[in-house]
Automatic annotation (TrEMBL):
Listed name of the protein: Serine/threonine-protein phosphatase
Gene Ontology CC terms, in alphabetical order: cytoplasm; nucleus
Family of this protein: Belongs to the PPP phosphatase family.
InterPro entries, A to Z: AB_hydrolase_fold, Calcineurin-like_PHP, Ground-like_dom, Metallo-depent_PP-like, Peptidase_S9_cat, PP1_catalytic_subunit, Ser/Thr-sp_prot-phosphatase
Reaction it catalyzes: O-phospho-L-threonyl-[protein] + H2O = L-threonyl-[protein] + phosphate
Protein encoded by which gene: WBGene00107403
CDD domains: MPP_PPP_family
Basic and acidic residues compositional bias, start-end: 13-23
Listed GO MF terms: protein serine/threonine phosphatase activity; serine-type peptidase activity
Pfam (any one): Peptidase_S9
């Protein structure tokens, strides 16, 4: 061993070799030489007193240190601070520093040895490891505790984040001083001053010592860290370090040659990689580590080269949290060890230590989380490998340690059935948002009584508090302009009559005290405006007229509620940045929507809806309504920003004076999908970015100030789509996540001043280890040639056909992974709304169905939003007609492509999707094998007769969407002709209906009357009623039972996999009122269930979402003036549509040309323009000076030249004269002369790959909380989804 100095402990009994025999060097270290010579050469020192000996005072020091070892390792300090003295700590630090100075950057140790991974201040875990060896024995007569007879290698990261970093590092230092040859302490990346200053170590010192003492200790600890070794060689065969390998690592001598002290590891590339680098599955060679922003990722090939070159058996590292405490990479030739159990409490990860025997057998000791679940768990670690445990035994309950013999890991089956409880139980964290100052993370989670309440967590530490203590679920919350004051909302078992309360969440406030803002039965309250700056908010109450909300000013200090608008006319009001009411909306008899601004004669403090107090501002034509909405004010409140639909199918982003809409300026024009998200600076109100969402979100940056930030975040998870959840007022702290169907949401906090993101949590950690479905976006043509966007999710284990095995016209689909080897059982999952849309991303519903062996088809049929007003308006009056034909055409497409078995297709959906199910089983009774209707209407007449009063402000819009009104006999007949109730006798196939008794939108009667009609005709039906639910099922037991009923039903209908379910299994409230298809036999369970987790989405609304939130959310957005450029986008839009249409016809020969014609046309269309091909990806943001190329064209040729920048070939744009082009990366700018009227356009730069709208349901991940404007405060504006800017119950943007 390289470490010198007399060791007062003897080697373990099973290691009888002498010191010289145990000492070894790596094969490339060089000629044999004594350890002392190597130390002299590497560190320049000999011994603590300069003579290689400990010095005359060593006996006294040893006595002092033994006292500390004995006291510190007492289990009574596992959760409480040890009473350190300031001078004692300085003495220990100084002795440790001297010990490290004697060691080179590479130390040696002989097996047997225990390797301990990252501890991060979790002292109890260190004590548990030591306690595991309490019975170990050394030589005969050895009186030391058993754990002191072992050798240990620590992989670094002793400090930060945990609450007892001082205990961990001091015990390790003390042991190192006394037993330098038995305790090898390697440096981790957190043993760097710049890191541990930010992540809790300095804060802990300041809490336990005076500020002056804390600064001294902080400096001295970090000085000692600079001398710590970077790697350890175990028995010449196993190389240990904190991070990983490096392109600079060619021999062990390279590590020995690293000089100490190392103040900044990044000044030495090899040292930096030994502390920071990470492995990456599928990578070849090295690439920059974009996740951490420093060092590299390395692949299996270069790892193999290093192992061979250095003659090593294995590499052991730390640095990454593993759910089971360890994980292998590259055929078990590298292992990551992480010892801190429950590092993220919501993940409940296990900790592990690695044991290397004398004969190099490797095993693991597992530390079960203190408050976590025991027993076997499957997981997928950070290397995307699925592992399980082999059998072991549990030590004493106090330790909860598990021993794994050898390295046998059982791979999780890719086809493993995911338990319902892991998908549909309440999420442990939902509705996450940052406080305005960015210091506190808020979220909703179930408490000890399984009631969803609001919790807060320190963003820079892990201190968590419950701040509401309600006995019924909290639906949503939001921060306010008064520190420690939040608002939260509830309703009564899903009746949607929202109640709002104020809560003081400061630590000294009474725990259960709250202030009632509104809780009157039958009254629906909503937050009209909250700018999170002022001491008041605006509240809307329909307390006088049920159809309209009065607006009140609520003082957060005095709790005074004062009326500022008496409203008998407007369903929506609009406020500016200062929460002043500026505009209101009213539907007109001719179908237009009129926007009114406050008259100069009106008193803004005592407004009414009387006509003399309002002046008409603009009228929006019926066809433009789906894509026309104001989204905020500029900083002066004198200009307003709109998504503008006039003259465009997809819409423009414009700005116009508040008194003259005709003086408008176009800032951005959508090119493929509607503008999805508009991101503004929360204080400056400058436009930062916009997004479009076709198959996946794409982000376009409009402001260079955030280019670097967004590029960093995009590169953090290149396979996902960046979603900005919320940002602090100063824009320095962001909360972000990523859309990915294959991976549940990971939530990061991004610290802008550090240009660094930290993983906070995964919303579904219990799914790690299960293979989830892919979700593939594609287009097809309906029978009338309208292009329809859709998604397909196949079972993860479904074999696929290769492109060479399918016809040429289907090649693109095969390359996307859409064509299975054999047709699948399929569920057509129909979204609600219908003015909503299906989107890309993780879905518990999709994961559940595909896990059971069903393909899932989701169709954005006509009437959906997000793809232009033409598609949305095409659904008006087409309930039960063309909207249903689109679903039938999707089934035909799936059958024609070999995706689905025609006889094994089920239809299922909620709200409008429930209506579509009933239509499918009545109007087309032979198409579907069975159907599941969730809160769907059966009679369009009774649906209109029972609309909630607060929908009446948009009643005309509702009747236009349905196509008829109930006021005329002709209208009633049209509605009856499209109502499944009157055709119930046609039902031939099995049907299940589920409904909530308190549903205010689709009354219980809608299901009751259909069930009665079926029974009248002796047609069996399964009917489940939930007495404590509304429009969708919020309570976890009810949600789990819902899925249990449906899963059992689909199993008997289609034959998919089935996790056994019995009535009452989840203590649900469900009443099985009719069981028309009860199974005759009881099946054995496919898998067992034990836990609960996320919750299912509240089913989308039946009607346009603008009837769900009556007041336009305040969200005042300010946008800076932009220098517009000119771009011929409208023609490009039309051309793109023609290309889409042509390609879709090619892909769908049932409705288009013969296949040989398709082949010829495909060859003439660029690949990136074919909708079913993956768009090319870019590795980095490309910024091109459009002004520069425009100026060059004008100077050389004269006249006015326009510039367009985009990926791909834009030469197909007609009516243009292209002069020149400039390309950077895969973005090309063209300068061209306009031959027809141009469209102004703002400078944007596309960020790739795949970015960026935040679409989540009800304010959280997975969509469980309605009231979409009751959390967060980021100025991010959704501009479509659920029919425009009004928000939505069920789905909405952040």
């Amino acid at each position: 061993m390289m470490s010198s100095g007399a060791d007062d402990s003897d080697p373990p009994e099973n290691d009888r070799t002498g010191p010289e025999e145990r000492t070894g060097t790596g094969p490339d270290v060089g000629p044999k030489e004594s350890r002392k010579e190597r130390r002299k050469k590497s560190s320049g020192t000999e011994g603590k007193d300069g003579s290689g000996r400990r010095g005359s005072g060593w006996r006294e020091k040893k006595k002092f240190l033994y006292k500390y070892i004995k006291k510190q390792t007492d289990f009574k300090y596992r959760d409480t601070y040890f009473p350190y003295k300031f001078n004692d700590l300085r003495r220990i630090i100084g002795l440790a520093k001297q010990t490290f100075q004697e060691e080179p950057s590479l130390v040696e140790c002989s097996p047997p040895a225990v390797v301990i991974g990252d501890l991060h201040g979790q002292y109890y875990d260190l004590l548990r490891v030591f306690n595991f060896f309490r019975e170990a024995k050394g030589k005969k007569g050895d009186m030391k505790p058993g754990w002191l007879t072992q050798r240990y290698v620590f992989l670094g990261d002793y400090i930060d984040r945990g609450k007892q970093s001082i205990e961990v590092i001091t015990v390790c230092f003390t042991l190192k001083i006394v037993f330098p040859n038995h305790f090898m302490l390697l440096r981790g990346n957190h043993e760097t001053k710049a890191i541990n200053r930010q992540y809790g170590f300095l804060q802990e010192l300041e809490e336990r010592f005076s500020k002056e003492q804390a600064e001294k200790l902080f400096a001295e600890f970090n000085e000692a860290f600079t001398y710590m070794p970077l790697a350890c060689i175990l028995g010449n065969s196993i190389l240990c370090m904190h991070g990983g390998i490096s392109p600079k690592l060619t021999s062990l001598q390279d590590i020995l040659d690293i000089p100490k002290p190392i103040v900044d590891p990044n000044t030495n590339e090899l040292a930096g990689d030994l502390l920071w680098s990470d492995p990456m599955i599928g990578l070849k060679g090295y690439k920059p580590n974009s996740v951490r922003g420093v060092s590299v990722h390395f692949g299996e090939d270069v790892l193999e080269e290093v192992l061979e070159k250095l003659d090593l058996r294995m590499i052991v590292r730390g640095h990454q949290m593993m759910m089971n405490g360890f994980n292998f990479f590259h055929s078990q030739k590298l292992v990551t060890v992480f010892t801190a159990a429950s590092y993220y409490p919501e993940k409940a990860n296990r900790g592990a230590v690695l044991y290397v025997s004398a004969d190099f057998r490797v095993g693991f000791k597992i530390l079960v989380p203190q408050k976590g679940e025991g027993g076997k768990k499957v997981f997928r670690g950070d290397h995307e490998m699925s592992n399980d445990y082999d059998d072991g035994h549990v030590r004493k309950a106090d330790e909860e340690l598990k021993w794994l013999r050898g390295c046998l890991l059982l791979a999780v089956s890719a086809a493993a059935l995911i338990p319902r409880e892991k998908l549909f139980s309440d999420p442990k964290l939902a509705a996450t948002s940052l406080s305005p100052d960015g210091k506190i993370l808020g979220y909703i989670a179930p408490d000890g009584n399984k009631i969803k309440n609001v919790f807060t967590r320190c963003i820079s530490c892990r201190h968590t508090r419950q701040v509401t203590f309600e006995k019924r679920d909290v639906l949503s919350y939001e921060w306010t302009g008064v520190e420690d004051i939040i608002l939260f909302a509830q309703d009564n078992n899903g009746d949607e009559n929202t109640m709002i309360f104020k809560k003081n969440i400061s630590e000294n406030a009474p725990t259960h005290e709250r202030t009632i803002i509104s809780n009157t039965p039958g009254i629906r309250a909503t937050v009209v405006a909250n700018n999170k700056k002022k001491r008041y908010v605006l509240i809307g109450l329909n307390d006088m007229t049920p159809a309209y909300h009065n607006v009140y000013k609520f003082d957060l200090y005095t709790n005074e509620l004062s009326l500022i608008l008496t409203n008998k006319r407007f369903p929506v009001v609009i406020t500016d940045n200062d929460m002043r009411i500026r505009m209101a909306i009213e539907e007109q008899e001719d179908g237009t929507t009129a926007y009114f601004r406050v008259s100069s004669k009106a008193n803004p403090k005592e407004l009414t809806s009387d006509k003399d107090q309002w002046v008409e501002y603009i009228r929006v034509q019926p066809d433009d309504k789906p894509i026309t909405a104001p989204i905020g004010f500029d900083k002066t409140n004198e200009k307003i920003y709109w998504i503008w639909g006039d003259g465009s199918d997809l819409g423009n982003l414009i700005v116009a004076p508040t008194n003259n809409i005709s003086d408008r300026e176009v800032l951005y024009t959508a090119t493929r999908a509607q503008i999805g998200q508009v991101l503004f600076h929360p204080e400056d109100k400058t436009l930062l970015a916009v997004s479009e969402f076709y198959h996946k979100p794409e982000l376009f940056v409009a402001n260079d100030t955030v280019m670097e930030d967004l590029q960093y975040l995009v590169n953090l998870r290149p396979s996902g789509s960046l979603q900005i959840l919320t940002v602090s007022k100063d824009m320095q702290t962001w909360l972000v996540t990523y859309l990915s169907a294959e991976n549940p949401f990971e939530v990061f906090v991004y610290r802008r001043w550090l240009k660094s993101a930290e993983l906070l949590f995964n919303t579904h950690p219990e799914l790690e280890g299960y293979e989830l479905n892919r979700q593939i976006g594609f287009d097809f043509a309906a029978r009338d040639d309208l292009v329809i966007q859709a998604y397909l999710s196949l079972p993860p284990d479904a074999p696929l056909k290769r492109a060479a095995e399918v016809p040429v016209a289907d090649k693109g689909y095969a390359e996307l992974g859409m064509i299975p080897a054999k047709p699948q059982k399929m569920v057509l999952l129909v979204h609600g709304g219908p003015k909503s849309r299906d989107t890309y991303g993780f879905s518990p519903m999709n994961a559940w169905l595909t896990s059971r062996g069903y393909a899932v088809m989701q169709v954005n049929f006509r009437g959906s939003v997000g793809f232009g007003k033409r598609l949305t308006n095409a659904g008006n009056g087409e309930w039960g007609r063309k909207m249903h034909y689109d679903l039938l055409d999707a089934v035909e497409f799936a059958v024609a492509k070999g995706i689905a078995n025609r006889s094994q297709v089920a239809i299922m959906g909620g709200s409008y999707g429930g209506y579509a199910t009933l239509v499918g089983l009545t109007f087309t009774p032979d198409t579907f094998a069975c159907g599941v209707d969730i809160v769907g209407p059966s009679n369009l007449v009774s649906l209109l007769e029972a609309v909630p009063p607060y929908w009446l402000g948009f009643y005309n819009d509702l009747t236009k969407m349905l196509g008829s009104d109930i006021d005329t006999q002709e209208g009633r007949q049209s509605l009856i002709a499209r109502s499944p109730l009157f055709f119930a006798d046609r039902v031939k196939k099995p049907l299940m209906i589920l409904h909530g008794a308190n549903d205010p939108r689709v009354k219980q009667h809608e299901s009751e009357q259909f069930v009665a009609a079926l029974k009248k005709h002796s047609i069996p039906v399964s009917y489940v009623l939930y007495p404590d639910e509304g429009h969708g099922f919020r309570r976890a037991p009810n949600r789990l039972a819902q899925c249990g009923f449906v899963e059992r039903f689909l199993h008997h209908c289609l034959g998919g996999d089935y996790q056994i379910f019995t009535n009452g299994q989840y203590n649900e409230s469900a009443i099985l009122k009719s069981d028309g298809f009860a199974p005759k036999t009881t099946l054995a369970p496919t898998t067992t269930t034990t836990t609960q987790l996320p919750r299912a989405a509240v089913m989308p609304t039946l009607v346009p979402s603008h009837v769900n939130n009556f007041y336009y959310p305040q969200q005042p957005q300010l946008v800076q003036q932009f220098r517009p450029t000119v771009q011929q986008v409208q023609q490009a839009q039309q051309q793109q549509f023609q290309f889409n249409r042509m390609n879709t016809q090619q892909a769908y020969p049932a409705y288009a040309q013969p296949r040989q014609v398709v082949m010829q046309q495909m060859q003439s269309v660029p690949q990136h323009q074919q909708p079913y091909f993956r768009p090319p990806k870019a590795d980095k943001v490309t910024s091109i000076s459009k002004r520069q190329i425009q100026t060059a064209a004008e100077n050389q040729m004269g006249g006015r030249y326009n510039v367009i920048c985009a990926r791909g070939d834009f030469s197909y744009i007609t009516n243009t004269e292209i002069f020149c082009q400039q390309t950077v990366g895969d973005v090309t700018c063209y300068a061209f002369k306009q031959l027809s009227e141009p469209t102004p356009h703002v400078d944007v730069v596309h960020v790739a790959p795949h970015h960026t709208t935040v679409t989540h349901m009800g304010g959280g991940y997975g969509g469980y909380y309605p009231a979409p404007h009751m959390h967060g405060h980021v100025d991010v504006y959704p501009t479509h989804h659920h029919g425009g800017y009004y928000g939505g119950h069920g789905h909405h943007h952040c």
